[in-house]
Amino acid sequence: MAVEKTTQGKKATAPPRVNQPEAEETLDASNDNSAKKKPTLQSSGGGGSSWGLRFVGLAAVGAAVAFGTSNVTVDDLPVTLRSLLGQNTALPSSIPPSLFDPVGNKYASELVKISTRKLLVPDASCTAAPKVLSDLVHVDAALGHADDLRNENKVFLLLNGQNHGIFLDWSKDSGCLHALATTAATSLGADPDFFPNGLRLYNSMGHPITTAADLDIDRLAYILTDFQIWVWPGVRVGYVRRVDNVTMTTISLSPLVFDCQGFFNLDEANAIIQHGSDKLMRSPVDSPDAVDGYHADRTSHTAFLDDSQFTRDFRRRSASLARLPSPSFVERMQLVRYEAGQFFRKHEDYFTSKSFLGKTDKAVTDFQAWSAWAAAAITALVDADVSSLPEGFRPGERLFPQPQDTATWQLALLDGFLQDTIDTSFYSDRADQAWATWLTENVQNQAHGIINTLLKDKGYMLEHIIASWEKRVNVDLHPSLHYIKPKDAPSAVSQYFRWIRWAKERIDDLGDRAPVHVRPDGKDYPSFRLTFQNKLVEYMLKDRTEAELGAVLGPEWATWIITNKDAVDVLLDSLRLQPRVFGLAVEAWTKRAGPGLFDYDVPVQLHHFEPNRYVTLFLYLNDVDEGGETVFPHSKERLVTNIERRGMDECSEGLAVPPIKLHASLFYAQTPQNDLDPLSLHGGCPPSKGVKFGANSFTWNADADEGTNAWGF
């Protein structure tokens, strides 16, 4: 899929480097199989892969409220939909020209200020775990019922961005917020291994809860672990909340899409068009299929507004509305223009063109390890009582695990898996319908090595394949056959990215106590930028001779790092294969940052994080005569159907959102667990008549400028 280029231009090219030493451990997974070629997901109507078009800079897609036909107007809508939309209003305002003057270094401004995590502190006196009082219940059971819950000594807790939670026994006098969050998060399915990295509570307006008095106000809270970023819960379609004088209406739960009214006014809309129109150019993309940087799947025009007080104000407001830790997480505003017939075919906003962790066949290796384990477990069970096993699972039979068998064993396994999933929403919930077709065809054709090919792209399916086998062997009757996958140590790349997040927060918490050179405008401020990697390597080499470095990493690695110290991504390339480099890099920076101020506890386990797009806020700047909808093909909402737009068949699929002046759409590119969400696939339909102007306020899970640079743009 093509991806729009940023203002920084094309991807950086690394200098020539010598070959890396081998990893300390290498994976040996066979790539030899006779399964059909994996799915190539073509866009309907041609023009390249619809899954290959992703933004690199600020890109144009819109959204507003879920309705629209080929020639619908607001007045034509049913009363229920007009009431969901609200009235088009504009607040009078005057935009002084001085607000568009150039501004200075962002790192010397409040733009990089971080609202740091307010972690709950364990209390040794809280020895009894709070009692869970219910199974999963929809949040409606607790919203607005604080007095009843208080009288009953109850509290309602949910995980980040979720709509179902549990009631627990709790009184204000008992306090014990950390114990409460721990019990609830465990019951709700969060990974306890992440709890030592930090637990937080937030109220329904996305503000931190730090005291029992805070929790007692609404008796409802959301639990976030480690560095998770807030996701607005959808609650239900049609749910309305007021946030920062903005009216947010839920119009889709999956993907999560909100209509926002009151975020900007008419004068601001006109100013965005005025100050961006003279810079408009054909929207470039980054794709192997793009000729001269352009692609037939994207025909609109875009322009970045200059960095100014005006655009920085929108960055602050976007961060506040999305409850992001810092305005720096928001990209600079981009104007978008769609003339009649221009479009952007379905795409995601997040990036996947670079593998920070490196490409591996880990899921294939895990499959082989499980197969060997399960074979041994069955053999031990057979030795004790062969009659207790279901038919088909005994040695020599089809469902007896054979790690090296890429035919009979894999086909038998997939037969059961397909029976359990093919007539469910398993694939559509994950935007993997094409893989369902691929699996079905290959199993029917009795292809070899299907699982090997599948898991190289869709490793998440392994746990479901195993669960399907366990269901048939009846692990309730044979608990010794239930597999608990050993948890691998986190990648050093994951550790590195988390450390940067931590160091930025630590500096903000220290304030004036932080040494000048590590503050945001200092030369050693931690950053996701590529050059920060080179700086850390430079410090490592200053602290150790080649022989000393070789004593820790091995002579080959020492030579490699010295030779490639100025190369792009030199640190990440090292961390993927030689984890001990992480400790040396952190040690080198901490030594210069100041003794005792930045002692970092390396987590035993953590959820992988890398800089990427997080949530999109798209502003509709003008009325469009006809067309110009934004479509979310994977949404199950169908408020209006039968939209036809030339060149974009997908405009009739899923949730169609028309461009309504002075409204905005907020939709997430990541899940509440802060993983990329393929269900966020969307497209910008062409106006049939007139011109559509919009503005993108793309936000990240990290500093947006640094994240863009980390991706090589």
From TrEMBL:
Protein name from the UniProt record: Prolyl 4-hydroxylase alpha subunit domain-containing protein
Region (Disordered) residue spans: 1-47
Keyword Nucleotide-binding listed: no
Location of the Prolyl 4-hydroxylase alpha subunit domain: 520-700
Region forming the signal peptide: none
Lineage, broadest ranks: Eukaryota, Sar, Stramenopiles, Oomycota, Saprolegniomycetes
MF-aspect GO terms: iron ion binding; L-ascorbic acid binding; procollagen-proline 4-dioxygenase activity
Composition skew (Polar residues), residue ranges: 1-10
Organism: Aphanomyces astaci
Top-level taxonomic group: Eukaryota
A GO cellular component entry from the record: endoplasmic reticulum
